[in-house]
Amino acid sequence: MASKAILEVCAFNIQSAIIAEKAGAARVELCDNPVEGGTTPSYGTIKQTRKSISILLYPIIRPRSGNYLYDDNELEIIRQDILMCKELGCNGISVGVQKIDGEIDIALLKQIVEWAYPMGVTCNRAFDATPDPFKALEDIIIAGCERILTSGQKTAAPDAGEILQQLVQQAGDRIIIMSGAGIKSTNIEKLMQQSGAKEYHGSARKAIANPMMFANPLVTDFGNVYIADEEEVRKIISFM
Q1: What pLDDT, in 10s, does the model give residues 143-168?
Q2: What is the model's pTM?
Q3: CA 158 to CA 179: how far, in whole Å?
Q4: Phi, psi (5° rounding) for residue 11?
Q5: Cα(35)–Cα(31) distance, rounded to whole angstroms?
């Protein structure tokens, strides 16, 4: 029987990307910097991940955290990173751009889609920072993106089932609505019933213990390593 939906795993390292493929995910959004919502991974990370997995690979193109209003230098960084992804054989990218009033920058997003071609383009959660999601949906369609990653403008997608359903209905066959943020095996079934979306996005991540035999207790700013939980990914996919 054909699956009702697919899962994209947000992977913050190569290990998570490999786990995602092993567990049955359809696509990986490869990111760095999980604490601030994901930024562009390094050349080496993208290259080695592309060599290590065969499923679809969409690195996030986001030169910094914060908003999605970029200056000329940042736009050139975005352009160069898109070219890098194309050269490394990625299938697409995840990106978002806004104007100062918060609306989607249609002209700039259209330019990014042209830079990325023939790769696909997902508009990321810049969409969730817009003042009117229903207008933003139309703007993103005009720009030529193939999907929108959204939590329905809530902190977590499971809190926005009704809004996501409205977005799915408005989108029709023109663009894919991918529900993401806060997705777990304990809420995915209800979210699927509420939203009617065919694609979902989650990290299923967990912090792993430091394996080092020695750790200086006076130095605590190393951060954590997060990795996809294979069992949780499999559980989520089991509902699809």
Answers
A1: 999 999 999 999 999 999 999 999 99
A2: 0.94
A3: 9
A4: -105, 125
A5: 11
